[in-house]
Design goal:
By secondary structure, the chain is α+β, with helices and mostly antiparallel strands. Helices cover about 40% and strands about 20% of the residues. It has two domains: about 60 residues, no CATH class; about 140 residues, ADP-ribosylation fold. Strand 1 and strand 2 form a beta hairpin.
């Protein structure tokens, strides 16, 4: 509960809400922060700062806040996309120049399982160091189970900036890590499968990327972090 005589200001920006409590001189600072954060040009930084605050509150990545707070608290390092070789993207994605990705490689591999009926399935791995100039669009809350991140970029342009593995290589890594990929996934049971598939931990994702990098390096003398 706010102290008597204090003013509570709620800042809502980029899907992050925070209550700022203060009075007197400090209220003037909080008000300036509110005005600054309301500017769309500053919202990416505001979200990052909000994430920093949440990471202090929640240093244990296995804890999960309702909604996307816990995800925002973690550094966004890699994005994954399960698709097929040469796929230009769906009509909506191409029309609006967006690419649907996930922060979880297992979720993306599941999408690759569904896509394999339409072509040669691959897993794309995007390093955020190579995507820092691309805007991120807020995802629908219903896509939380996919750990979805939407980028303002054409799918084929994302391919140019990403490293890739075959679906077989991706599943091999997960198997080596003791992680089972759901079988017989199709459009009719995709949502239920994603919902019932546990999210990979941050440590597991780091291990996956490291193993993927080794395979890609052996295949092309490149890496997920340096050659794309």
């Amino acid at each position: 509960m706010a102290p008597v005589g204090a003013v509570v200001v709620t800042v809502l920006t980029g899907g992050v809400a925070a209550e700022l409590i203060g009075g007197g001189a400090i209220m003037n600072v909080l008000w300036r922060v509110t005005i600054w954060a309301s500017n769309p040009a500053n919202q990416q930084t505001a979200v990052a700062l909000g994430g920093l605050g949440m990471s202090i509150v929640d240093p244990e990545p296995t804890n999960d806040y309702p909604g996307t707070f816990d995800d925002l608290a973690r550094p966004l390092k890699y994005l994954f996309r399960g698709t097929t070789q040469g796929f230009k993207g769906g009509a909506t994605a191409v029309k609006h120049s967006v690419t649907y990705t996930s922060t979880d490689p297992l979720k993306s591999v599941i999408f690759g399982e569904v896509a394999k009926k339409k072509g040669s399935p691959i897993l794309l791995i995007g390093d955020m160091k190579n995507l820092k100039d691309i805007d991120i669009i807020p995802s629908n809350r219903l896509a939380e189970m996919e750990k979805e991140v939407i980028l303002r970029i054409q799918p084929l342009n994302f391919v140019e900036r990403a490293a890739q593995l075959t679906l077989k290589e991706s599943k091999s890594i997960l198997k080596e890590m003791g992680i089972k990929v759901p079988e017989n996934v199709n459009m009719s049971n995709l949502s239920e499968t994603l919902k019932n598939t546990p999210d990979l931990t941050e440590k597991q994702i780091e291990i996956f990327v490291k193993k993927a990098d080794e395979i890609i390096s052996n295949n092309t003398n490149g890496s997920t972090t340096g050659s794309n």
